[in-house]
Write a structure and sequence with these properties.
One of its GO terms (cellular component) is ribonuclease H2 complex. The chain is mainly β and 152 residues long. It is built from one helix and ten strands.
């Protein structure tokens, strides 16, 4: 299990809008991009539009569903240990208990978001886009999993 550490300052984390580009960039952190290289705008049809290395990109805003939140996280420096109880079936059909220790990693939140912009080359990312499809399917799966009643 992984623990999530909230902001060390104790206040709200800054808001951001992640951009998922249809290419691989060897960067996984914040990029202080100059407007010359990255200047998304709203096109006449009301959708996000940008040019990246001379290629036209069209964006689709994907909102995080109600009841969920988006977080940008980094690997935390803290680890947590917890005791767990393990039940084993003994040879004599008696249950015995043992204490075990789990070491868990932690993630630190650095920003929060309400929407993600998914970009496509000269076309809007549709329902065939794996990220867009994943948001819909994962939310549906999570709702069914948490709302289902255990069968006897």
């Amino acid at each position: 299990m992984i623990a999530l550490n909230t902001s060390e300052a104790g206040g709200p984390v800054p808001k951001c809008t992640p951009n998922l580009l249809p290419c691989r960039i060897q960067q996984d952190g914040h990029a202080a991009a100059k407007p010359r290289y990255w200047a998304p705008c709203i096109a006449k049809d009301g959708r996000p539009e940008a040019y990246f290395r001379g290629r036209r990109l069209e964006g689709k805003e994907v909102r995080i569903p109600v009841g969920f939140r988006g977080l940008v996280v980094v690997e935390g420096k803290k680890t947590y240990t917890c005791n767990r109880v393990i039940e084993r079936q003994a040879a004599s059909d008696e249950k015995s208990e043992m204490d075990g220790i789990d070491t868990n990693g932690a993630l630190d939140d650095v920003a929060a978001f309400d929407e993600v912009i998914v970009w496509g080359h000269d076309t809007v990312a549709g329902t065939d886009n794996s990220f867009v499809r994943c948001i819909d399917e994962w939310v549906t799966f999570a709702e069914h999993m948490h709302n289902s009643k255990p069968s006897v």
